[in-house]
Amino acid sequence: MRELIYLDNASTTRVCEAAAAAAAEAMRACYGNPSSLHFMGAEARRLLEGARGELALALGAAPDEIFFTSGGSESTNTAILAGAAKNAFRGRHIVSTQIEHDATLKTLNYLKNQGWEITLVPPERDGSLPAERIAEALREDTSLLCMMAVNNETGATMPYEAAAAELKRKCPQALFYLDAVQAFCKLPVNLKNVDMLGVSAHKIGGMKGCGALYVRAGLKLQPLIHGGEQERGMRSGTEGVPQAAAFGAACREARAGMDENFRRAEKLRALLLASLEGIKYTVNSPENSSPYIINLSFPPARSEVLIRVLSDSGVCVSGGSACARGRQSHVLKAMRLPGERIDSALRVSFSPENSEEDVARFCAALRQALTLF
Amino acid sequence: MLKGLNRYIFEEKLVTTVRRRLKPLGEYSVSSSQSIIYVEPAEGAPLEPALAAAKKIFGIVSVSRAAVCEKTPEGIMRVAGEYLRETFSQPRTFKVEARRADKRFPLTSPQIGAEVGGYLHDMYPHLTPKMDDPDVLVRVEVREKYAFVSAGRTPGAGGIPTGTAGRAMLLLSGGIDSPVAGYMMAKRGLELGAVHFFSYPYTSMEAKQKVLDLAEILAGYCGKITVSVVPFTEIQTAIRANCSEDYFTIIMRRMMMRIAQQVAERQNCSALITGESLGQVASQTLQSLCVTDAVCEMPVFRPLIGMDKDEIVTVSQKIGTFETSILPYEDCCTVFTPKHPQTKPRPENVLKQEEALDVETLVNKAVENTERITLG
Predict the structure, then answer these.
(1) Model-level pTM?
(2) How does the average pLDDT of chain B come out, rounded?
(3) Domain A258-370 is classified in which CATH homologous superfamily?
(4) DSSP characters for B318-361?
């Protein structure tokens, strides 16, 4: 049995023990429907609201600003579609960036086909994206700005605070959506000027199929899913109590360990780069990136071959994002990297569970794999 | 069209093939007489899958669906009238042709033809009887237990029954061309084996599965196929380490041919089949094909040699391999693809390059470690 070295935590993480226990309790003991009037319903409701409280604490928001969803993609879809609909009368121009997640880009493309005008700001060649570039794209009729806090492929941190401030100065009525999927519980998130924010549970030790949308108090949005008026009408459908409870537990743990985990990730990243000495590589992550994600290229190797060989020795990493199997990364393409760098890119992403030993074993396996080229 | 005394050999082979292909679908009785094969489903055996399977069997010119009638003149006429309602909804010329296997039937064959023809004409007055080349030929067959009426045929797969022309080894990649080449040669009666060159980890398990899926689709036409999966990584890395880049592809092709030939001999195949089309890529120029063929002692069939890509695509869509072929799993890693391959390799240069390789050992080792997977 090969030993597992899991360094693909930006794709998804192992469910942490506390989260698994919370989910198990919700599935086995507190399995009531939170809308039921009997005591089982009340217990489930208590779990659900407890989890909501945890998320609110982590974000510095009020519990009734948090709505559970099925994941990051749903949060993004809801925010963009509802935000756009809300502000359509002010203008039909949306600003975003070329390096957003597909959940954002595809939703924007859908709106484009409905007649909206979309401006996608390109990143610099190093993968960073200065706030001024975004400011330049804002217009009087801009009604929505959406961007991520941390890029999922390179780990680049985005200047969303400055961009949001500029948006509110130039277009006070426009809405700002922050995709915080890769930042939540890893880096501090500032809600100032943020109208909507999306997070996902399984990136921080929660379960797949669960996420949340923060909507600033006072902002009324049309739901995407209609039905039994759960989540105060924002998201109908019986609440996934086990998923939400797991999300709450994971969130509590990650929030408590945030600073320590951050320093640990920084250490692992530094160790990784130090261990690559003698290997020909380039770093595709810009300065000031999240330490949790590092994107590297090993020309003339091919990502898919490297991933396969590493996988055979128990090491899990990904090429671009895990969602984009077999396609060239749109993020690295937007950075205008040469083809051989795009085709040989690996993304290594850490979780608090990773050790220095993992990094050392990864580097050894990588050295071995690179002899194929 | 086959004539003469060997015709019955083909027909017997065909009947065996039909029996074998229908066997997994249910219970059918299969018999033949005068170059027609009759398939009668037993109670509960489905007809539609049997029809679909029959349409894929080489050697069958056309397939038609017959209606069963009670074995009386009245029974035949009643069923014929119903069965042909749709066919005869528009004015057409027609002719009834009858045969009886059961000579005790009260009417002779010409009498059946005349009676049924008359009945149909009364029922559908807009029809015109026509003895020579009618729009619709209605066949009535009086058999031992029942009678059948049939009309309107759909084209069968054509060609010659599989296996009547011998066995050949298809070089099967995951691309569009090679499955089409295999299909075309199987249509001319060849039984197929297939050989696939697998370069793990440079190519993925998905790429291998894709080849097996293609073989499975081909097996629907030409019966069981054994795919020999040859480990090819060592050879590719040896070529890359020892030969000059512009010769990678041509030397790789020669290695493939050498191996394919040995695998073919082991499996009683007497020819190779490739999906090459003249001038399509660097390894398919006339000069390249000459250099490749120089290592082959068996004939190499290249049925696509004069076809354009779009013609090949049309066939692959018709036979159902296209969708699988275009799945994005590469059959050859671009690591081994030279940027500027030789289009006019000179034999003496190729030989010189190959001196750096231990060709015999590499080939033998690859053949020895071949994995065989049977599909269909």
Answers:
(1) 0.81
(2) 90
(3) Aspartate Aminotransferase, domain 1 (3.90.1150.10)
(4) HHT-HHHHTSS--SS-GGGS-SS--SS--HHHHHHHHTTS-HHH
